[in-house]
Amino acid sequence: MKPPVSPPRLDKLIKLLTPELLPTILDAGAKPGGQYLHWDKLRHLTPPDGLSSEQWWLGIKLARGQARRISLLDVRGRPFSFTLPDEVLSMLHAIDSLASGRVVLGGPVVTEELRNRFIFNSLVEEAITSSQLEGASTTRQVAADMIRYQRAPKDRSERMIMNNYLAMQSLRNIKDQPLSYEGLLSLHATLARDTLDDPGAAGRIQIPGEDRVQVVDHSSHRILHTPPPAEELPARLNALVSFANEDNEGGQFIHPVVRAIILHFWLAYEHPFLDGNGRTARALFYWTMLRRGYLVFEFISISRVLKQAPAKYARSFLYTETDNNDLTYFIIEQLKVIEQALKALEVYLGRKAEQLQRVEGLLRRSDLNHREIALLSHAIRHPGHEYTVKSHQISHRVAYATARADVSRLAELELLHSRRIGKKTLAFIAPDDLEKRIKALRPDK
User: Fold this and answer.
1) Domain range holding 52?
2) Element (H, E) at 82
3) DSSP sequence for 408-444
4) 229 and 293 share a domain?
5) pTM of the full predicted structure?
6) Which three-class secondary structure state does DSSP give residue 387?
7) What is the per-residue pLDDT for 217?
8) CB 3.0–4.6 Å: which of 159, 188, 190, 387 could bond 167 by disulfide?
9) For position 158, which CATH number holds?
């Protein structure tokens, strides 16, 4: 990746400001095309009549208004800041609406069994794609089966993915606890265990005397980011921990989603660990979202979206560093990722609802009786649920022999699995692929 061209210094641009040009420069400050453009892109566009590209850039910088500073400082001691353009406010509103939990937790499609299934699948997806972003190489099916059946990892890539799954799972259990310095190191230890050339580097920051890890473009070998000196890391990470636990930063309210994104950037900027910084940064983002009540984030994977366009992620980071530590570039890009992941979940759930309706329509057109149809309609929404002859008898108030005939027939049609519990009782279990089995059902069976 080619590093972006840094914008002209504002102190030099101010010299271009004359009383005659002031109104034109200020009028030109509206965001071009509604986008929050960096100088690297703007310099290639045609400026408004009567202005140079540099004067147009000055107008844009003035129009972006008062930046909100945070306590993160760069390697030269200058603060990072962000603004809240309309684009950010609009996406925050959309995310608040989509992530309210209503679409997932209150929808008619999502039962407790399906909810747990969604959570498991999203944890697996995030574990795999987050690890793949940092070099893990294995197929999704192999990795998913390893986690599902708790098979021991065979190599470093599988260990990265299993560690990521365990870390993501643990975040759900600690979401109500404040972050601590030790907790941050423990999170990294879980993510990095048995994946580093130096096993002792898991769960500890880099120390003075070690070569600091740099972010390098693998194709061009250019250094994209040089993190702060190791000597400064303890104090800097303590500042990160304080920011993570605050509701306000210096008396100013920061939207929870913006705070989570800033923490994501902050950990990546510090790059305190020998390896696994990206995975830790994304896990920290998830912890913050869950802690602030965005429980729908149990169901989505941001790494899946990031993996589709990793260059955008890296470029937004570089835009921030090169334009006076303006975090808005990174915030906007991450808001787009979040919004895309939430919309994908909404589409999936809508598709799932339609699918269930179609399957129930197939059931009604089959030669199954109304009791059998009712049981299967319940089973579709409750994969893994166990039924007995007795429970079916009580639900439909029929004779024991009638209930036994119903569930036995469904087992013969392979629409239910059967297993013995005790010496006399049979349990009938809803299979995970029940929808597929129902679609294959023929009335003449």
Assistant:
1) 10-63
2) strand 79-82
3) HHHHHTTSSEEEEETTTEEEEE--TTHHHHHHT--TT
4) yes
5) 0.81
6) strand
7) 76
8) 190
9) 1.10.3290.10
